Amino acid sequence: MKRLIFPLINTLVLVALFAVIGYYVADPGTWILLGAALGLGIGLAVEFGFGALGGWLYRRRASLTALIELVLIIAFVGPFILVYVQTTPQRYAVCCIEDSGLGDPVEAVTIPAADGETLAGWYAPPTDDSGAVVMVLHGSRSDRRASLPHAQALRAAGFGVLVYDQRASGESTGARQSVGLYDQRDIAPIIAWLAARPEVDGGRIGGVGLSLGAHILVMAAPTTPDLRAIWSDGLGINGVEDLPPPKDAGEAFIGFINGQAYRMAGLYLGTQPIPFRTLIPQIASRPLMLVAGGLDPFEAAFNRAHAPHLGENGGLWVIENAGHVGGLWAAPEDYRQRMIAFFDDALRG
Q1: 69 near 14, Cβ under 8 Å?
Q2: In this prediction, what percent of the chain has a pLDDT beyond 70?
C-alpha cells in the first residue's frame, strides 16, 4: 500500500490542475477524468518502473515525474487544449436583421451545408444588373455580425452580399467548430445556393475572408472553381510548413507549439490541414489579395511569406498601422476603395 501513496498524490495534483482547465473550458468533468487517468498512469509507471531500477532514479522520482508531466503538458496537453477551446460550439440567437445596415431588401436565409447541417445568415441581392455577389466570412469564435462592416461597404457599391454564421456558431447547426477544416466543405454548397437564385450570375461570386474566414476561403478555393476571387484579410498559417525560418530559439519554440496544435487539430477532427504554400499556387490564376496588419508582426511575416506563391492576379497589401483584421478601421477610405476596385475588376470587369 505504501507504494500507492506517490501515484495517488500525483493523481490529486493533476486532477486539481485539470479541474482548473475544465472550469475555463466549461467541461470540468471530462478534464478531471483526463487528469485522474494521466496522474495515476504516470504515477504508477514512475513508482514501479523507477522502483525496479532503484538508486537515485527512484529517490528523485518526484522531480522526474514533474519533468515528464511538464513536457507532456507543453508538447501535447497545451496544444490540445488550444484546439479543444477553438472547436467547442457557440450557438445562440443572432439579432437583428433590421440593424444589419445591409439596406433593403435583405432576408434571413438558411443554406444546406455539405453534410446535412444548416447555415444561417442574411442575404441582400445585388442592386445593379451585374449579378455579382460577395460572401463575407467572419473570424473564429464569432458570428455573421462581425462581417457586417465589410459587407456594408460592398453592398453600398451595388454588390449582393451574404453573411452567415459558420457551423456550430450563432444560429448555424453543427456539433463542433472546426478551425475551418469542416467549414471549407461548405463553400461549394453556398455558391451553388447563390447561383440558383435568378438575380445572381453564378460566374460572378467572390469572397471576403476575415482571419479564420480567410483560411476557409483559401482552403476551399482549389476544389471550388466557381469561387472567382478572394479578398483575404488576416490569413495566418495552416501548418508548420508555412512558417518562415526561425530567427532564434523563441521563434523555434513557437513554431514547435504551432506544429503540435495543427497535428492535434488533425487528429481530433479527423482531417489534416494542408499548408497554404501548397494551396495558394493551385489558385494562382484567380484574383487573390492578401491583406495583413503591420502591427501584428507574425501576421505581416506570414503573408509576406505567402506572397511569392501568388500568381499574376494576386497581390499583397500590408497596412502598417493596422492590427489583426483592423485595416478597415485604420485606413477606412483606402480600404473600401481598394476592396471595391478589386471586386469590380474580378467580378464586374
Answers
A1: yes
A2: 99
Q: Distance between CA atoms of 188 and 199, rounded to whole angstroms? A: 18
- Give all strands of the β-sheet with 314-319 in edge-to-edge order: 107-112, 118-124, 160-164, 133-137, 205-210, 230-233, 288-293, 314-319
Of 311, 298, 296, 286, nearest to 250 by C-alpha is 298
| CATH code matching the domain that covers 94-242+273-347, chosen among 3.40.50.1820, 3.40.50.1010, 2.60.40.1930, 3.90.190.20 | 3.40.50.1820
CA distances from 29 to 20, 80, 88, 248 (A): 11, 17, 15, 40
The H or E element containing residue 220 is helix 212-220
| 195 residue type, one letter | A
CB-CB contact of 215 with 209 (8 Å): yes
Query: Domain extents for the chain?
Result: 2-87, 94-242+273-347
Alpha carbon distance 149, 264 (integer Å)? 34
The model's pTM: 0.89
Q: Which residue has the cell 452567415?
A: 164
Query: What does the pLDDT read at residue 240?
Result: 85
Confirm if 70 and 121 have CB atoms less than 8 A apart.
no
User: How far is Cα 274 from Cα 2, in angstroms, rounded to an integer?
Assistant: 51
